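Throughout our pipeline, every protein is held as a single compact record rather than as scattered files. Nothing more is needed to write down the fold, since each code stands for a local backbone conformation. For reference, a complete record is included directly beneath this paragraph.
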Amino acid sequence: MGHFLAVTAIHTESVSEIAQAISEFMQSYGVTHEIVPGATPPQEATDALIFSPVNGWVVVHWPDYFNVHDFPLVQSIALGDRT
């Protein structure tokens, strides 16, 4: 069986804006989470990684098995449906 990746590219230069939008979405569903600086080694099973922009695109690599949840979250961010 293969390894399923969920990766999203968002056309922006602001990592902090994307981190905040993701955080607000998670809060709206009662998901416990925290924003941790990059100094900590990531845990692929539980951590989303947000990469600095390249050519105006910020990339988010979602945790393992998150591929069924990334579309609703990214659609919410894109449409500004944050609560």
In short: Residues 7-33+43-79 form one domain. Helices lie at 15-28, 70-79. Residues 32 and 41 are 19 Å apart (CA to CA).
